[in-house]
Amino acid sequence: MMRKEIDARGLICPQPVILTKKALEQIKEGQITTIVDNKTAKENVVKLARNMTCSVNIEEIGQDYYINIFKEKPGEEVHLKDPAGKNGLVVLIGKDCMGAGDKELGQVLIKGFIKTLLEVYPFPETMIFLNSGVNLTVEGSEVINSLKELEKMGVEILSCGTCLNYFNLEEKLAVGQISNMYTIAEKLFNAVNTITV
């Protein structure tokens, strides 16, 4: 039986879940043990394993949780890297942080959100960046590589031209296309589903 251990101690959400999911998708049958050092990561990994119809056993050793995940039957393959289709899903990002409250925490969250989009399916059809959200699509952004990877998968990346001009960033656009409010409005009104971040 295949056995693999993932040491996810010290990693921030959602990395322990992503690493565990990738490992489970690489085996037809076997055991994955994910080690985490906080309850939130433990609960998220356990939830993932159960959603993937695996059985779970947890050992607490010191401050760490050893999550033993058993994949007993070949499961249906999940093609995370399938190109984005015409699914009508639009993600609107209107700022360079996520949520209200502490800005530094919000910036960590938006980075995590964009990187996690590479691991969920289906990919959005279009991502629109407005206001300070355009800071995420220009040179120096910590999520440029993730956005470029999403673009390769067929996700349309649009940044508001007015917003880029306002922040003097038009020449620094590093991924996607410059768009205008007419196109943005058209995308939003024709969307089957819109997620606003």
How would you characterize this protein structure?
With 197 residues, the protein is α/β, with parallel strands linked by helices. The chain has 2 domains: 2-71, 2-Layer Sandwich (Translation Initiation Factor IF3); 89-196, DsrEFH-like (Hypothetical Protein Ychn, Chain: A, 3-Layer(aba) Sandwich), CATH 3.40.1260. 32% of the residues lie in helices and 25% in strands. It is built from 6 helices and 9 strands. It has helices at 15-25, 39-51, 103-116, 144-152, 161-166, 181-190; strands at residues 2-7, 30-36, 55-61, 64-71, 89-93, 126-129, 156-160, 177-179, 193-196. The chain has a 5-stranded parallel β-sheet with strand order 8-7-6-5-9. A 4-stranded mixed β-sheet has the order 1-2-4-3, with helices on one face. A hairpin with a 2-residue loop joins strand 3 and strand 4. The longest helix is centred in the middle third of the chain and has 14 residues, at 103-116.
